[in-house]
Amino acid sequence: MSTIINLPTSASFLVTEDCNLRCTYCFEKHKQNHMTREVARKGLEYLCESAIKNGDDHFHAMLFGGEPLLNPDIVEEILSYGLELGKKYSLIFTASMVTNATILTDDVKRIMKTYQGPAQLSVQLSVDGVKDVHDAYRVTRAGEGSFDVIAKNIPQWQELFADNPRMLNIHGCSNKKTLPRLYENYLFFREEWGFERIWFMPIHSEDWDENDVGIYEEQLGKIADYILERSKREGNIAEVDNYAPIDRCLKPDGFPGAPCGAGKNFVTITASGELYPCHQIYFNDPEKTTKIGDIWAGIDEPRRAIFVNYDNEDMTCAKDNPECDAYGCYRCIAEHWQRKGSIISTIRGPRCKMSQVERKIQLKIREELMQVGLLNQKCTDTRKGNNPNNPDCLCDSRGGAAPENITNPVSKCGCGNSEESDNDVIAFALKTVLNKLDTIEKEQALILKKLL
């Protein structure tokens, strides 16, 4: 169990909670909330102060929404003021943005050009694949496809990042209908559009089955073969590093402290200035049960404790299958909380098997790279996850939906004995309480020492 008490220094800023698209699988509620200059600046000051208190040398802002470019003035305010604070306190400020790529005005271009270098700005474009795949799900408010608008903007986005194309990546969501075309969509992004950094996320809320697992293995296998062939031909591993989750084969085997940094080093700052562990949890928590503070009063540590104090050994899948080689297994605590009522109750079944497929292919690629001398016997890349905004987490995709009724904070694991899973959750809660008491005792001892 983790005892980390550092404050978060990275956050997704909900620049606006509105969007100009209505993607059919989106977990957001499209509220008419827009971040103000005051909230943006105070949010950055909170992260900056946290970095100073932690003894860290950097802080990070991820521009998120809704669609952040609906509020470009605040996008620029965050980038500008973040750099100002960094300079003032000798800290490194970096930023990233997730956008649906439909908005690219002259003002947006100016902002991208101005801050790309100073803030090390990276941008993720959310596109699902070829035209008919994308237009089936990423639609406008009027229900029309958005692909043509995006396709027109793509060359301009690429021109903006021509000096550093790896800072521009593309991300797509896959469901049961589009999964059989995963390889086709990948090739389209890689060869037709010429993107280097690409990743796809199976939608959280999809009802995956055993047939989908087989399709995923076939499609991901084709992508792996393409990547291997290109790596051998070009004599380097850049192509492997470009595609998530295959890039995990470049990392040493071993679990990070937890599958996600939400609530630990990463939080979400809402348009009104509230703090949540992550944006996906926030958008599916109208009762605000997971709110952990605000940018004015700071973190409410007792409310944050459950997110800080868990780690891999507390996850129910680790307890049920101690011999499982699940390194790099995709586990989203927001998805667990939405569907099972507990962040540590891992979703199993086909979704788990899809992660096992990823692991199988990662090991295959690693072995072949070693055989041809492109990878050392010992992997030294220790980066976690694939999201530069939150290095402990794989995702910032928008796939997923909350179940209609979550009333029980204690979850039953669907794959093992439910009584055992309940006991695991209770045991974890008890450990969290005991850990908090231990922290209080240590703080009291320090106070008494100073007084005496």
UniProtKB/TrEMBL annotation:
Its cofactor is [4Fe-4S] cluster. SUPFAM superfamilies: Radical SAM enzymes (SSF102114). Residues 15-159 form the Radical SAM core domain. InterPro entries: Aldolase_TIM, MoaA_NifB_PqqE_Fe-S-bd_CS, rSAM, rSAM_sf, Sulphatase_maturase_rSAM. Gene3D superfamilies: Aldolase class I. The keyword Iron applies. GO terms for molecular function: 4 iron, 4 sulfur cluster binding; metal ion binding; oxidoreductase activity. Keywords: 4Fe-4S, Iron, Iron-sulfur, Metal-binding, S-adenosyl-L-methionine. Signal peptide: none annotated. PROSITE patterns: MOAA_NIFB_PQQE. Pfam families: Radical_SAM. This is Radical SAM additional 4Fe4S-binding SPASM domain-containing protein.
